[in-house]
Amino acid sequence: MLDIASLTLLVYNYLISLDAEIQLVWKAPWKFGKLLYLLTRYLAFAGAVLRIFLNQSRFLSLGTCNVLTETMCCECCLLRALFCHF
Known about the structure:
The protein is an all-alpha fold and 86 residues long. It is built from 3 helices and no strands.
């Protein structure tokens, strides 16, 4: 239930700040800061959806469960690699 509440807050935040994001981020030239912003903004959605899917899917095959778990680990490792160097 907490995962669904977190996703709801992410969607709410996305919707209220979309206009500013379009003006300030999407129209800006590609730089490292823009890449970091977009990765952190949209990987959070992917992670939240995966967590909900994993928590709600009790009858997944072992292979599917392993793939989804590895995907979440890769997301965490990518974010750590990006932010631990700064």
